[in-house]
Write the structure tokens for this entry.
Amino acid sequence: MNKAENVMNKLERGLISTYQFTFRYVIEKIIDFIRRKRYIVYNIAVYILLLEFAYVFLYPFLYLLITAMKSPTDLLDMTVRWIPREIYWENFKVAFAGLNYWTYFQKSLLVTLLCVLGHIISCSLVAYGFARCRFPGRNALFMIVMLTIIVPAQVIIVPLFMQYSTYGWLNTYLPLIVPTFFGMGLRGGLFIFLFRQFFIGLPTELEDSARIDGCSTFRIFWNIVLPISKTAILVCTVLGTVWHWNDYYEPAVYLTRPKNWLLPMNLTNMYATLRMIEGEEFGISEVDQLNQMYNTATLMAGTLLVILPLIIMYLFSQRRFMESIERTGLVG
């Protein structure tokens, strides 16, 4: 009996030693692999983190896109969540007609282009003055400009409304366009900051040579500095286009008549517009059924049509936009 117990004890100790050796060997191999291939492990960890962030940002857009393609039957079916049984293009047709898309698209495009042009001209000129011209109180004035970035529009909207009402600018696009040509308007302080950071990084030798040849400060800015500021201009153009196109608050304050609304604002009036259609695209009997068609899917389709120009613009300018972001000093 003792001999059997001794044999069993030796076997158990041998197995334990074997397991310990095997476990230690596996751990050492894993550590050695991580040391030799640490860049692969690092890249895997980075990609996992990026995928998590991408999911957070892409989830609302994917939900918007998939819901816009659902039929009324799929909307009522709880089992249909991500993959519709059929692509229901009627939602886009109804939303396109309800938004009166082309009419309001032209208005939004005109206002956005003029606002972006005003910001580029005025903010670049102001920023060049802060970057190159030395005058008393320059830093204090620049700090005041920076404070305008953190002041929300809701704080000053009442005095602005009273001022524009005195000018007779209500229900026109002047309150949105005119301030941008004076370095104000939506995110004007941020554009001044971006241009100033870019101008500070430019070498001054070319400007000094032009000044020796007799060029004035404004001519140096207009003929030399501004043409080589394509990266900063691209960043401000993309950001300004997105912000002005999507802006809802200020246009809703200054534009009270539906005929003067911009495209994003017309989402709230989409069903009323459909009710006024007199049989051109929808018959009278079909108009009576629009109450059922105007559902979540139709609203999502209208929202997708509103942001579609921005998506197309970003797809064409993505690469240069990211390069320009790095050169303007916004990151890094």
